[in-house]
Amino acid sequence: MENIKQRKHIFVKGTYETKKSILVIKCSVHDIEHTTTFDTYNRSQNGCPICGRKQVSSKLMGRKFSEETIKKMTIASNQRPNRGGKPRHWRKNHAYSEWRKAVFQDYNNECAVTGVKKQKPGDLIVHHLNCVKNHVHLAFIPQNGIVLERSIHNNYHKKYGYGNNTVTQFKTFLLFLLEQQKNLSTQISSQANPEGLEGPETRAYELNRLMKLHEHLGRVELILKG
Q1: Shared domain check, 135 and 153
Q2: Same domain, residue pair 17 and 69
Q3: Is the pTM of this model over 0.90?
Q4: What angle do the packed helices 207-225 and 167-189 form, to 10 degrees?
Q5: pLDDT tens-digit series, residues 73-130
Q6: So which domain of life are we looking at (predicted)?
């Protein structure tokens, strides 16, 4: 209980019987309840997952990469066409794993565009909004990531290619989807038959979701520039 007070959290409920006993606390900063165990809470650095992600994010924001690291990451990024299906070597390190995990958590383990959740491994991709090639310092910043269905990720890169991708560009892609969705809605209301068509131009998207995501990425863009 002393640990809860020190972290300025609010005890909601929980009875300690074993270290695996359920504990529910409320973070006064984010005004959310968090369910965990007594053991996990005491072993964690701050006890709140959102505080933890923000702490990691702030540390990474100020992180200075060595010239050698930047060189290696840039070379790896530039070698995409010749990778032979193998992941970039910088994706094998712990920082990338933690970054990917944080991005999935931020987007509730679902595609930011459609809300679709993963059914099997590989369904969802964590995409760098600002490409690593030109923005190495943002490689492991959670705000620089977004979760996408594989098909949407492929369609985006088919339209814009690889190597010079930015948040602004992805916002433009969302506007493209919005416009196509409006056209599709007009088609349907005119009793056109869209069956058998595939691709981003004919898929049904939730307009309100796309607009909210566009607004969210506008805020993200300012954060990453800051």
Answers
A1: yes
A2: no
A3: no
A4: 170
A5: 555 554 544 444 444 555 666 778 888 988 998 898 999 999 999 888 889 999 999 9
A6: Eukaryota
